[in-house]
Write a structure and sequence with these properties.
single chain, mainly alpha, two-stranded antiparallel ribbon, two-stranded antiparallel sheet, 8 helices, globular
Length: 201
């Protein structure tokens, strides 16, 4: 189900390259992802205070890695959404539909700029570090599938760099929604990681 949600998001994102497509659905998706993330944070906090995990070093390390990465993702999100041209009474068909904000933040032409390179590096480091802690094979596969930053093959069989495929020339709102979806997935992974530890204690 989680993978289906992600694929639906990508389909919607691709459709938004066409002109005159409505963007209001992104607002609904954003709200859904934010709500789910908040619920997951509560579950994670409860798990970490459980007697089985309160002194578990792996659980502490994993949670610290997640908190650090999500803080970086949130700063990037804030950098985009707090652009001075974006008014407080936001219209998804206005500034939020423009692609310039994304291209300017992550790219120089078709190449990653310093921010784009950092964005990829942070995600790769986070994925690598949590995989050292994960013992469950299914969770490992899910993490690799969702947090992989390798080239993505399009319908024509051409390999395209991760950010170019997902973010380049995309409207601002679609990338913001993708970031919130990624946050939700990351919290789902941590929640499952902690559940696995408790089951195996």
């Amino acid at each position: 189900m989680r993978k289906i949600t992600f694929l639906v998001l990508l389909v919607i994102a691709s459709s938004c390259k066409q002109e005159n497509e409505p963007y209001s659905m992104y607002g609904l998706l954003n709200e859904e992802f934010v709500y789910s993330s908040e619920m997951l944070k509560v579950q994670i906090a409860e798990s970490l205070s459980n007697d089985k995990l309160i002194n578990n070093e792996s659980a502490k390390v994993y949670d610290n890695l997640t908190s650090e990465y999500l803080a970086y993702l949130d700063r990037t999100y804030s950098e985009l959404i707090n652009h001075p041209k974006i008014e407080k009474d936001r219209s998804y068909d206005g500034e939020f539909s423009k692609k310039e904000y994304i291209n300017d933040l992550f790219f120089i032409g078709d190449e990653y700029n310093e921010k784009g390179t950092e964005f990829i590096s942070k995600l790769e480091k986070y994925r690598t570090e949590i995989l050292k802690l994960i013992k469950d094979r299914n969770l490992t596969k899910r993490v690799n599938a969702t947090l992989n930053t390798m080239y993505i093959q399009n319908r024509e069989g051409k390999k395209i760099k991760y950010l170019n495929y997902l973010y380049q020339d995309m409207p601002l709102i679609s990338v913001l929604t993708h970031m919130k979806n990624k946050e939700k997935s990351i919290l789902e992974f941590e929640n499952d990681f902690l559940k696995n530890i408790q089951l195996n204690e």
